[in-house]
Amino acid sequence: xxxxxxxxxxxxxxxxxxxxxxxxxxxxxxxxxxxxxxxxxxxxxxxxxxxxxxxxxxxxxxxxxxxxxxxxxxxxxxxxxxxxxxxxxxxxxxxxxxxxxxxxxxxxxxxxxxxxxxxxxxxxxxxxxxxxxxxxxxxxxxxxxxxxxxxxxx
Amino acid sequence: xxxxxxxxxxxxxxxxxxxxxxxxxxxxxxxxxxxxxxxxxxxxxxxxxxxxxxxxxxxxxxxxxxxxxxxxxxxxxxxxxxxxxxxxxxxxxxxxxxxxxxxxxxxxxxxxxxxxxxxxxxxxxxxxxxxxxxxxxxxxxxxxxxxxxxxxxxxxxxxxxxxxxxxxxxxxxxxxxxxxxxxxxxxxxxxxxxxxxxxxxxxxxxxxxxxxxxxxxxxxxxxxxxxxxxxxxxxxxxxxxxxxxxxxxxxxxxxxxxxxxxxxxxxxxxxxxxxxxxxxxxxxxxxxxxxxxxxxxxxxxxxxxxxxxxxxxxxxxxxxxxxxxxxxxxxxxxxxxxxxxxxxxxxxxxxxxxxxxxxxxxxxxxxxxxxxxxxxxxxxxxxxxxxxxxxxxxxxxxxxxxxxxxxxxxxxxxxxxxxxxxxxxxxxxxxxxxxxxxxxxxxxxxxxxxxxxxxxxxxxxxxxxxxxxxxxxxxxxxxxxxxxxxxxxxxxxxxxxxxxxxxxxxxxxxxxxxxxxxxxxxxxxxxxxxxxxxxxxxxxxxxxxxxxxxxxxxxxxxxxxxxxxxxxxxxxxxxxxxxxxxxxxxxxxxxxxxxxxxxxxxxxxxxxxxxxxxxxxxxxxxxxxxxxxxxxxxxxxxxxxxxxxxxxxxxxxxxxxxxxxxxxxxxxxxxxxxxxxxxxxxxxxxxxxxxxxxxxxxxxxxxxxxxxxxxxxxxxxxxxxxxxxxxxxxxxxxxxxxxxxxxxxxxxxxxxxxxxxxxxxx
Lengths: 154, 762
Description:
The complex is a heterodimer. By secondary structure, chain A is α+β, with helices and mostly antiparallel strands. Chain A folds into two domains: 2-72, Beta-grasp domain (Ubiquitin-like (UB roll), Roll); 78-150, Orthogonal Bundle (DNA polymerase, domain 1), CATH 1.10.150. Helices cover 38% and strands 15% of the residues of chain A. Chain A has six helices and five strands. In chain B, strand 17 (388-393), helix 9 and strand 18 (416-420) form a beta-alpha-beta unit. Chain B has three domains: 5-217, Aldehyde oxidase/xanthine dehydrogenase, molybdopterin binding domain (Aldehyde Oxidoreductase, domain 4, 2-Layer Sandwich); 225-319 and 378-453, 2-Layer Sandwich (Aldehyde Oxidoreductase, domain 4), CATH 3.30.365; 325-370 and 465-760, 2-Layer Sandwich (Aldehyde Oxidoreductase, domain 4), CATH 3.30.365. Chain B is an alpha+beta fold. Helices cover 26% and strands 24% of the residues of chain B. Classes of the chains: A alpha+beta, B alpha+beta. At the A-B interface, helix 1, helix 3, helix 4 and helix 6 of A face helix 4 and helix 15 of B.
């Protein structure tokens, strides 16, 4: 069956079953591999994308439910003003170690900053609770979000 | 630009007995100069279980192009530990080029010519430090010689900076790129005679360099193993048994083959797993053979995975289908009621000393098996065709993988190409190559390219685990509160009479050598769980036991826990403490270095004022020497009456010698190791019932999340020793520092991991 989904502002016709998780549509059908597979049960956040601007776990989002959503991935988030600044700050603070979870971390951080431009520690705790970093880069993730919160885009 | 294998032939073959390093230079294809430096491989390379220990290997391979771009090949795989950046920094420093002109390329596996090309044991920095410095300095000397010859001036009057040779008096200068071709024709300097830079003039070493991969990581374009795709590739899942080494009797293959997208479903017969080997045998004790199972191949991974949901397999589960954690615990208890079976070390007369002690402290500590849980699940792309295999793998250790594939498929190792792709975390998991073996076997069966990808459940239930263990400890104190005797009966996991790798404490683990009467006895619990190295193998468990018990004993003696350990460190047994025990990968233990990091962290944390902390809040201290790094840390936590632990601050002091090669990454490794250790303490355990692993995913094997991580203050103490590695040293002391802080805050002593709130409720 064919579905049309919008990813990073581009419409794609996807020929797959409706219950296929968006994660695997992105990775194996659309060849957008920045969104990572970690757990498959919505626990780790490596597969985080934005659906209509909110963070969503793409391993839990079936293709048929994605048809009416604007999907943004790590490959496209740099097109938004906040996403671009998050990526830049992630690099200047050298946030990643292995880097595998960082696409998902950046997507969650961007969603947090879009909603809450000046996040407090409790906001960061809640907004980043869905993303595991096995390497333990949490201190720099928090520092990067705080720096951005100190100078939000008006 | 990849390495052309024939490029490496510029280095004449060396005998295994060669003790000296040497540099080879030649004209590069397309202009410029190629450098290859060959050094005897250090014995510690044996960590990879390869055949190269003692043989010589190409440590450095680099090219300077006519435009001045310096391409340095990184031989060792990157899994987030920073080796791929740190090693080229050392060479570039001595070559004296600008870092902006350096390009780092990941080398493919070179079949031993570049050594094992493994990453593990915090070994990359100490083993490459002098070789890379000498190679860089020799290259610089050749470029100076080329300029001097061109100008007809003495080399001694020329200097270098940022890839340019200059002659100050005449105002002449030439770039390395323009000198490269001339330099390639000059004789190569003796590496043992070459003049190294004055270390105070370092411009690259000691300045933070961000791994160029990270610019791609932040926008999703960095390729990891899981992202590799080759033309015509299919996807596979591989279902292994619910009990280790189970054998497939039958499976509903026809039903699976009929499912959407599935092209193949077949049984692969595994080989029996090699059992534990005698201590001292080279290698990691990991069997890179194929385990039996069912392969499902489909047009997408999701189709293969979905089909697995319908898979029904009748397994012969073998003799271990009744093994359980409860059974292991009962066995340990039984062993502790009996005389020990063996001994690792006895100093003085501990039995007599225990009788004479004024006060005895007894405790039993136990810790579970744990899993590596790398964020990127195991995966591999393999393409078999006409007796040759091309492999793309996020491996930490390609050599044994290649040997395993060659053996399984019955082909010459030279017909196997391995591309090493960035891995999403290693922690020792990717020293094994089981995923590579599976991919090669499935690719051969379907005669085409395949990507094998493990689900998280495969990952959790088919790891090479950190072994659990049990320690039954007794300490004896004198009337004035001195530690007089330390007695430990350890019960650990073993097969065929041999302990699993990293199960048994090192004979030299502190406080051994610092207590007059000391005993470490052992007993064995039979088991059948695959075991492998996990970050700071051995130390990652034993440090928690020893440093927790020392804290317990200090409290029993009415002493400050830091003063108590300092007093021990200042009074080693004759012949200990200075230069003993030997360092595996670097300088030997020196008590003075440990004392210095302890005093630093005590001052930074304001430890002596801790009695002013609020109620239910406390500080805990621990220190440990691991992978020749000295680490002391102090954790401050609050423990609620409901047993909830809230870390508040952490201070850590580290001594790994005189240079921190790449400070941004060094801090990452320290903090990452501490978070890793805390994460293990808070929630990680692998338990068994009916021979089956009970945990399956991050919901029942939790890792720490951002909210639990307090500010972590890192201090480096620089001492006059060659720099050593940082991937592991800070992990071991994190767990006991946390648990000792919990004791200070709550009065509850943690003697069993992981933590549970019920154990800490007050």
